[in-house]
Amino acid sequence: MKKYFILLALILCSGYFFSLDSQYFSSNKKIDYLYVKSPEGLRIRNKPDLSGDRTGVLYDRMRVKIISVGKEITIDGIKSNWIKILLPIETVQADENVYGWVFGGYLTDKAEPFSTESWTDNDLKRYLCRFSWVTGTGNRSYYQFNLNNSYSVNLLESGLGGFGEYSVSLKNKTITVKSRYADEDSESEIITDVYKIIKIEEDKLTLNIKGYEFIFIPSINQKVFYEILTQEKFNPGLFYLPSYYALMFPFSSDLIKKIDSRDFINKSMDNLIKMGIYVEDEEYEKAYNSYWN
């Protein structure tokens, strides 16, 4: 009996019961989207095989548009299927559907409530790197954290900015940034700043910086970024790309509806639908279903 409970505990810790196995995919023939359930991220490959090239990584809790179900495979003791997914940003850039393959054993059909309860420092790093940030819709400061510990902050539409590296401590609730600041003519020495973490939410981060409280939100809330989505030809530069990954998270529908409300949805609808982005809006849903079904 003791061995049984030990085995049960291991299974629960591994998240097995939340994995979508081959039986799920054989029973569900029509799937619109699923969520990533893998704290360390889920690799994207260019073909349904472990020998396929790795073309990218999906972050935990990202919502992905499902195209088709591929062959069965067992990975990490989980028997599931290769799943063909739409790559949204690459699709609108290329103006044609671009696909990738992921292992279905690390997908789920329900996104659990956001929680930091079991986080480590690495989880906090991945959280910071999911997309770029701004400190309010009218603020032009644009922050980007990267998994290689590099960091940058830029003042949009200017030559001002900073670059360097960062580290995190969940225990101390801090983000430490060491960076040089520069304009078109000069560059500072390395300056160290410690950001105190006040509150972590899925779509916002509250920090105390030098005694002042700042709320970091996805940078796509800033007009410079979201207006690009309303253009007939979506072609942002590399500098802008991290902003649009926020569209792949569970909060994206609410985020989109808050941006200039109905006017933005109407103007960006074609690009958002091509990207497979779901928005809880009656008019949008009709157009979405007409395009994808």
Automatic annotation (TrEMBL):
Segments forming domain SH3b: 31-111
Gene3D superfamilies named among the record's database cross-references: SH3 Domains
PROSITE patterns: SH3B
Xref: InterPro entries: SH3-like_bac-type
The name this protein goes by in its record: SH3 domain-containing protein
Organism of derivation: Treponema rectale
